[in-house]
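re: that chain from earlier
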Amino acid sequence: MATPHNAAAKGDIAKTVLMPGDPLRAKFIAEHFLENAVCYNTVRGMYGYTGTYHGVPVSVQGSGMGMPSIGIYSYELFHEYDVDRILRIGTAGGVADHIHLRDVVLGQAACTDSNYAAQYHLAGTYAPIASFALLEQAYQTAGRLGIPVHVGNLLSTDVFYNEPSPLPQWAKMGVLATEMESAALYMNAAAAGKEALCIVTVSDCPLRGESTTAEERQTSFTDMMRIALETACA
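^ sequence. v structure.
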């Protein structure tokens, strides 16, 4: 049954979904990597497709920007469409000194300044982490493909424009990169008893004033796409 945000019917979506933030990146993946891809959603321009990769059914769908947006879409995928695994393939800002433009980072965990965990009424601070099975598989897959990756902590923040920037302090605590979705995805997966992993490409390094273009972010970050697709089919 369709939801307010997704026109797909039960069975239209594969058990494993790749989720870029940008719906146009979902379209790019469907057109360049999947075989026999069929579009199942265009509601709010949030494209979703299902096809096969090496004969294995895989879906790809945009999540939008921020934890509220990925929170809605991933919740519906887990609970309404019986999806078992979501691999976020997004962009991030590198904050650690050794992280550079176009590096790929596997999000082992996600710090956050969000209040997203308040809904669970926990008597403490929840630490959102990735599925170790997916993380291990993605790391091994990257090695097999010859793609260097970093593994470590992300910062999922609710604030894009923040002055003064808190990023130097997060970098001091070992955070590799900052983005806006991973913590909510990890919490939704945990609450649903499902699996999630965030694979991000560094699109900018805000502390050094370095950045890539919108077109590069949409079409050229193929290393993380290949890692995610191969992991989904392992």
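Strands lie at 16-19, 35-41, 48-53, 56-61, 85-94, 104-112, 149-156, 175-179, 195-205, 210-211.
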